[in-house]
Amino acid sequence: MKIFIFFLILTCYCNVLQAQTCAAAKYPESYKTEKLFLEEEVRFETFLENNKNKISFRATPVIPVVFHIVYNTLDQDFTDAQVQQQLTILNRDFARKNPDTSKTPSVWKNIASDGGVQFCLAKRDPFGNTTLGIIHTHTNATELANINSVKSSSTGGDDIWNAKHYLNIWVTYIDQNTFGYAAFPTDLATYPQFDGVVINSKAFSISDFNFVYKNGARTLTHEVGHWLNLFHTFGTDVSVNCSTDFVDDTPTQQPDPKNAIHCLNFPKFDDCTFSGNGVMFMNYMNYVADSCYNLFTKGQRDRMMAALQMYRSDILNQETFCNLTGVNSVTQVLNFTIFPNPTSSGNISIEFENNSAPIADVFIFDNLGRMIQKKLEARLQNALLNFSNLNTGFYIVRVTTENAVVCKSFMVIK
Fold first, then answer.
1. CA–CA distances in Å: residue 36 to residues 3, 23, 50, 106
2. In 3-state terms, what secondary structure has residue 326?
């Protein structure tokens, strides 16, 4: 619910959320204390109010994304196929094509909305080189020194790409109490080096290693909402009941981080909304288990569209640098076998179904997830690949074509 009182904006943001599940609202620490930031929020609210009829786009904007997978152990790494799966879920949620829209209570179906944007894997890096939009980086750091360490190679992470042209998403182990965090667009001009989203590797995509209640790949939807200037539905201050998220069509709500591991039953009432339809616990900007999320509202969509125009307009011109993955994308079916497996010599052949012979890049990873060898632009059908320098052990081969990524394992026994 929006309480359009500028004094409230200036006072409540000083004590921003210190929750255990999402660290977005406390980021960055130094900027939140500056009067300039608080005045900027007032300026945004004014822009939104004055331009409500002008913030729609003729075509859905498509934002280029680069995923930085920064891992220390193998369970923290993800295949490119898992990354694409996460991006598909993000696009479905933002298009309101998610399969659980039927769970939206009927009383809110008329205000339920798509998020107004779509996302794609970048196909050009900042230097104009071809890329998959996915970077795998092994780090020797077992934990982050601070919340921004993952955003620089000098501190054990991976360097940010130009924040004006890409949505940077880092995936790494944070801690068991934080699922993710994001930079707000109001930070971009002052802290461009810290822009983007960070997701806990145990709350990313769908994996056997994930937190049970965060295995629906919805954490990224929540954090991208912050990146587009949405606050939590319960407001900006966890210590204040009945705070505001500056959105008209979301009910006022009491903060309760414990709900992040639960799916609640409708209607749900609390000390802030104790009658009517209750609180909108299934909103993507709330705290619930992934299986409970299913909607943005029209008011939230307006706020995100205004943020794109006011703060992130440069990124709207990068659509040609995209490989769209998601709602309407078509993925090549790629299947192959490796033989002999196990191999005693290290030499293997790859045979594709349907007698196809794709041109592909081949990457070999060891059992710690470190890339140890690659062959680029290889024609693979019945081709003998020489990996005779490999020691006895378990390895993963990743085959990447223009439209597909497939990983399979093989053994070397010498």
1. 21, 21, 21, 41
2. coil
pLDDT digits (tens, 9 = 90+) for 151-190: 999 999 999 999 999 999 999 998 777 889 999 998 888 8
Across 122-131, 226-235, 254-263, 387-396, the highest mean pLDDT is recorded for 226-235
Distance CA 371, CA 408 (A): 14
Mean pLDDT computed over 133-140: 94
Total Cβ atoms within 10 A of residue 173: 20
Amino acid at 5: I
Query: What are the residues facing 169 on neighbouring strands?
Result: 67, 197
As beta bridge partners, residue 352 has 336
Q: Which two tokens stand for residue 50?
A: 């004055």
Q: Which two tokens stand for residue 224?
A: 């991208």
CA distances to 61, 100, 206, 215 from 309, in Å: 11, 30, 32, 33
Tell me which residues are annotated as active site. 223
pLDDT digits (tens, 9 = 90+) for 299-355: 999 999 999 999 998 887 665 567 544 444 434 445 677 878 888 887 777 776 655
Query: Within a 10 A sphere around the Cβ of 404, how many other Cβ atoms?
Result: 17
Give the C-alpha separation, 1 to 283, whole Å: 13
